[in-house]
Amino acid sequence: MDKVRTWLQRGRGFVEDVQAELKKCSWPTRGELFESTVVVIVSVVLLAAYVALCDGAVILALQAILPR
Question: Less packed terminus of the chain by CB within 10 Å, N or C?
Answer without folding.
Answer: C
